[in-house]
Amino acid sequence: MRKLISTIVMLLFALIMIYPFLWMISTSFKQPFEVFQSPFQWISDQPTLKYHEKVWTGAASFVGYYWNSLKISIISTIGAVFFAAVAAYGFSRIEFKGRDTLFLIYLVAMMIPNQIIFIPKFIMFNSLGLYNTHWALILPGLFTVLGVFMLRQFFIAVPKDISESAMLDGAGHFSIFLRIMLPMAKPSLATLAIIDFSWHWNDFENALIFLLDKNLYTVSLGLQSFVLENSVDYNGMMAAATAGMVPMIIVFLIGQKFIVEGLASSAVKG
Question: Which segments of the protein form a coiled coil according to its record (predicted)?
Answer without folding.
Answer: none
